[in-house]
Amino acid sequence: MEPWPTTRSPCARSSLLVLLAVWWGGLAPVPATADRAPAPDVLTFRLAGDVQATRSLAEVTATKGGKALRVFEPYEEDFATFTAVPLNAVLDSVYGKTWRSRDEVLLTCRDGYQPSFPVSRLLAYDAWLAVGREDAERFSILKLERGERVRVDLSPIYLVWDNAADAELRAQGDYGWPYQLVGIDLIDARKRFPRMTPPSGSSTQVESGFEAFRMHCTRCHKMNGEGGGIGPELNWPTNPTDYRDVAWLRQWIDDPASLVAVARMPRLNVKLKERSTIIDDVIAYLSAMAKHKVDPSSRAGDGS
Ligand code: HEC
Question: Would you place residue 23 in the very low, low, confident or very high pLDDT band (cuts 50, 70, 90)?
Fold first, then answer.
């Protein structure tokens, strides 16, 4: 199972079904999805794997604060308007306010695909649960796949972000936009990413750096084999702190283009509060991990 939605789409396996529904210029009706089990119109909420509550689609839709939300839809690569309710309000109603001090949000899509992101992402940006589309007949998108438009069903729920006026969030593309959402779990990232976890007894700065790394870096980078594959692995067999000094790394994370004209890595969100502390924390985390290399091909998740 791929832990991160990077080059793959969330719920990528459903693209098999989607292939049946290739969009022919918007004219052809999409075949009935008789080959697919009916979508359970229920969202299941868990805490460390244990079911806490379920909510029907009607209950989710009735959440206070619902509205028509216009976002830049990253798979269609165009603006779209959804009927949506604020995710944080839904989480408040299920878990009380305590979810905010949890670690990682693990999502389950209808086909079993499970992307995740740190809880802090929900505090930094506004996430919404879309339950329908305001500007189209069907709750679906016409996703761009290798130059073709493919109709993708979003039901029962699509997690979207209020990115219309937020260039940084928009630059993150489809990271954290799973569709066909059926489950939300609050978990401990250490269990999910044992190889990415710093050794026990690490300083609070290293721990903060671990969280910042999950928030800003793992969608593109692997650490001991865990994470996304757009950028290079950052620990095995070499860690950038093995061959770069701190000043260089600070400048790289701050603004890669200031060092490499054609850098593909984006600069760390310039609007972040305490941005330079975050950069220091991430570098502290990288340095700690340099002494904690785990061969990704080894079986043990924890090399300590
Ligand atoms: C959108 C994808 C993306 C994100 C997000 C990202 N990187 Fe990168 N990173 C890359 C790519 C791609 C490269 C390879 C160099 C290039 O083409 O820019 C890279 C290279 C690097 C390097 C190697 C530089 C060298 O030449 O030694 C380091 C270190 C690094 N990234 C750290 C980070 C850290 C830390 C974060 C989070 C704060 C981060 N990256 C976020 C894509 C990303």
Answer: very low
